[in-house]
Specification:
The chain contains 14 helices and 18 strands. The protein is α+β, with helices and mostly antiparallel strands and about 450 residues long. Strands 2-3-1-4 form a 4-stranded mixed beta sheet, with helices on one face. A hairpin with a 2-residue loop joins strand 13 and strand 14. The radius of gyration is 27 Å and the shape is elongated.
C-alpha cells in the first residue's frame, strides 16, 4: 500500500505538469490560429485509453505513461508525421506562421511550468507558512556526514555562518557548500570560534558519498521513549526516560554514535551507562542483538528543538512564492554542470529516483511542494537545446530569426530523429541506473519488513 501511495502521487503530479505544459503550447497555437490536431496525456502508439473529438482537436489519454504531447499541424514533432509536410502549405499550419509566433508556441510549455512553480509556492506559503529550524536551536551542536568530516568538521561543532556572514538556516550553509567553488564555514568548537576552508570543487566529494546522508544534522541526546517487551533493552532494565551516555566505555552523545558503537558489538554483551530521570547514574549489562540493536524507541528529537514558522497573508505570500521559485530555479541550474562530471553522472536517476521524493503517506503539503519542484525540473530540461525537446525547436527558430533563413524540413526531420534516439538513450540509462541501485541494495528494503 505504501508503494501504491508513492506511485499515485508521482502519476498525479506528473500528469498535472504534463497537461499544464502542453496547455502552454496549445494556448499559443490557438492564439495564432494554428490547428492543433491532438492533445494527449501520455503517449498512444496503436491505441488510446480514452479519446474525445471536440472541434478540430482530439483530446485523449494514452496507455504509455511517459509524458504527453500536442500534435500541431505543419510541425515536425515526436510523431514524425512527415506526410503532411509534402502537401502545400496551409495558412492554419505551424510552418506558415512567422518565426516569432512559432517561437512563442515552442516556449509556451516552459513558460507555463515556470509560472506554475511560484504559484504553488505562493499558495503553500499562504496555507502553511514557512517552517524551519534555526541553527541557533542546536543546543548540542551538529553531527556531520563523511564529506564534511573529511575536511576537518567534528561532531559537536556549532555551525554559525559562511564566509563571515551569519547563517540562520540549514540551506544558508548547505547552498554555498554545494554550489560555490570554495567557501569558508564558520564554526564554534569547545567555545572557540574558527573557520574551515573547503577545497576546490568540494561538490565532487559530496557526490561520492551516501545519497541518504545529510551534510550535517542537529545533534540530540539518546533518551529512551519506550522499550520493546522481551528485547535486550527490557531484559537489562532500560526504562522510559533513561539517557544512554556511554556504551562499552565509549561516550554516546547522539543516536548516530550509539548505532555505530552497537554495530561493532553485534551478538555480544556490553555495559551501558544511563542517567535515570531522577538524575541517578546506573550501569546496565545488555546483550546486543545479532543485527546490532537493543530494542528501544528513541524520544522525538523535537523535544529539544523548537522550529519557527513564519505566517503570510494572501498578498504577503506572493513575493515569498516568487522568491522560493526563483531560488529553486537558480540552484537547480547550478547543479546541471555537475551532471557532466563522473560523480554527477553516477547520481543520475529516472522515475524511481523521482518517486523517492514523495512520502509513503499522502501529504498534500509535500505533494504540492514536490510538484512545484518538478515543474522547475520539467521547464529546465525541456528548454535544453536538444533536438526533440522544446529547446531544440527554439534553437532552430533562433537561427532562423538571426539569419532570416528557415531551416529546411529535412534538417528538422534528421535532427528530430537524432534527438529522439538521444532522449531514449538517456531514459534507458537513468531508469537502468535506478534498477541497478535497487538490485544492489535489495537486502535493505526486504530486511526492514522483518
Amino acid at each position: 500500500m505504501d508503494i501504491l501511495v508513492i506511485v499515485l502521487q508521482l502519476l498525479l503530479s506528473l500528469s498535472i505538469l504534463v497537461v499544464t505544459h502542453e496547455a502552454g503550447h496549445f494556448a499559443f497555437a490557438k492564439l495564432f490560429g494554428i490547428k492543433v490536431e491532438k492533445f494527449y496525456l501520455f503517449f498512444d502508439p496503436w491505441f488510446s485509453l480514452l479519446k474525445i473529438k471536440k472541434g478540430e482537436t482530439e483530446y485523449g489519454i494514452g496507455w504509455v505513461p511517459l509524458g504527453g504531447y500536442v500534435k500541431i499541424a505543419g510541425m515536425v514533432d515526436e510523431s514524425m508525421d512527415t506526410k503532411q509536410l509534402e502537401q502545400p502549405v496551409q495558412p492554419w499550419e505551424f510552418r506558415a506562421k512567422p518565426a516569432w509566433q512559432r517561437l512563442l508556441v515552442m516556449v509556451g510549455g516552459v513558460l507555463v511550468n515556470l509560472i506554475t512553480a511560484p504559484i504553488i509556492f505562493w499558495l503553500l506559503a499562504f496555507n502553511y507558512g514557512e517552517t524551519y529550524l534555526p541553527l541557533s536551536e542546536a543546543k548540542f551542536g551538529f553531527e556531520f556526514g563523511d564529506a564534511l568530516k573529511s575536511v576537518g568538521f567534528q561532531d559537536g561543532d556549532y555551525v554559525v555562518g559562511v564566509n563571515g556572514v551569519k547563517a540562520e538556516t540549514y540551506k544558508d550553509v548547505a547552498n554555498p557548500i554545494i554550489f560555490e567553488d570554495s567557501c569558508s564555514v564558520d564554526i564554534v568548537r569547545d567555545g572557540v570560534a574558527m573557520s574551515i576552508q573547503l577545497p576546490h570543487e568540494f561538490f565532487r566529494t559530496i557526490l561520492r558519498g551516501d545519497d541518504n546522508q545529510a551534510l550535517f544534522a542537529f545533534r540530540t541526546p539518546v533518551v529512551v521513549d519506550s522499550v520493546m517487551p522481551g528485547s535486550a533493552a527490557s531484559e537489562c532494565g532500560l526504562m522510559r526516560g533513561d539517557s544512554i551516555t556511554s556504551v562499552a566505555g565509549i561516550a554516546t552523545p547522539s543516536f548516530n554514535v550509539l548505532t555505530s558503537v552497537l554495530d561493532t558489538l553485534k551478538g555480544k554483551a556490553t555495559e551501558l551507562v544511563v542517567v535515570r530521570q531522577s538524575g541517578e547514574c546506573d550501569t546496565l549489562t545488555a546483550n546486543v542483538s545479532a543485527d546490532g540493536k537493543l530494542g528501544f524507541f528513541l524520544c522525538n528529537p523535537m523535544r529539544w528543538l523548537t522550529p519557527k514558522t513564519r505566517h503570510y497573508g494572501l498578498l504577503e505570500a506572493i513575493p515569498a512564492g516568487v522568491v522560493k521559485g526563483k531560488d529553486m530555479l537558480v540552484n537547480y541550474c547550478r547543479q546541471l554542470p555537475m551532471l557532466f562530471t563522473r560523480e554527477g553522472a553516477s547520481k543520475v536517476g529516472g522515475f524511481g529516483t523521482i518517486a523517492k521524493m514523495f512520502p509513503d503517506r499522502w501529504n498534500w503539503q509535500s505533494f504540492w511542494f514536490n510538484t512545484a519542484f518538478l515543474a522547475i525540473i520539467l521547464a529546465v530540461m525541456n528548454i535544453l537545446p536538444i533536438p526533440a525537446l522544446d529547446g531544440g525547436h527554439v534553437l532552430f527558430l533562433l537561427v532562423e530569426v538571426v539569419t532570416g533563413r528557415k531551416v529546411s524540413d529535412k534538417v528538422l526531420e534528421v535532427a528530430q530523429t537524432i534527438g529522439m534516439i538521444l532522449l531514449l538513450g538517456l531514459v534507458l540509462y537513468a531508469n537502468g541506473a535506478d534498477i541497478f541501485r535497487a538490485i544492489t541494495n535489495m537486502v535493505i528494503p526486504f530486511a526492514s519488513l522483518m
